[in-house]
Design brief:
The chain contains six helices and no strands. Helix 2 packs across helix 3 (45-54) and helix 2 crosses helix 4. It is elongated and about 105 Å long. It folds into two domains: 6-83, Eukaryotic RPB6 RNA polymerase subunit; 86-119. It has 134 residues and is mainly α.
C-alpha cells in the first residue's frame, strides 16, 4: 500500500498549518469513536485522518469548523468557572491582610530586638560633649 505524504494532502488543504489542525481534529474524532470513512488497513488514527483528507472522504472545511467549535466549548467552560472562585477584590483583601500580618510581626521583632539591645548598647552623645572632650 502506498504511504500518504503531505504532498497528497496539500492539494486539498494548501496551508500546511491548516492541514495539521484538520488532521489532528479528525484523529481526535476517530479516537473518540466516530466512524472512519475508508479502510483502516492496520494504520494509526493520524495516518487514517490524512488518508481521508487526501481522498476527500471528509470535508476539510467542516473539520476546521468542528475544531473551532471544540475550542469554543472549552473557552465557555473556562469563562463559566470563575463564578465559584473568589473575586479579585476578595483575593486582594486577603493579600493585604496577610502582608499586614507579616509586617506587624517584623515590626514586633525589631521592637523586641531594640528593647533587648538597650541594656548593652551605646548611649547617644551630643556633638557638644564630643567637642568638650578635645
Amino acid at each position: 500500500m502506498a504511504r500518504v505524504t503531505v504532498e497528497d494532502c496539500i492539494k486539498k488543504i494548501p496551508n500546511r498549518f491548516d492541514l495539521v489542525v484538520a488532521a489532528a481534529q479528525r484523529s481526535r474524532e476517530i479516537s473518540n469513536g466516530v466512524a472512519i470513512e475508508i479502510d483502516r488497513n492496520n494504520d494509526k488514527n493520524p495516518v487514517i485522518s490524512l488518508r481521508e483528507i487526501a481522498s476527500e472522504a471528509v470535508d476539510a472545511e467542516s473539520l476546521q469548523e468542528r475544531f473551532i467549535r471544540s475550542m469554543q466549548k472549552n473557552l465557555i467552560k473556562e469563562v463559566a468557572s470563575p463564578e465559584n472562585e473568589p473575586s479579585l477584590e476578595d483575593e486582594f483583601a486577603a493579600y493585604l491582610n496577610e502582608s499586614g500580618d507579616e509586617n506587624q510581626s517584623d515590626d514586633n521583632f525589631m521592637i523586641n530586638k531594640i528593647n533587648s539591645d538597650e541594656e548593652g548598647s551605646f548611649l547617644d552623645v551630643s556633638e557638644e560633649s564630643l567637642k568638650n572632650e578635645d
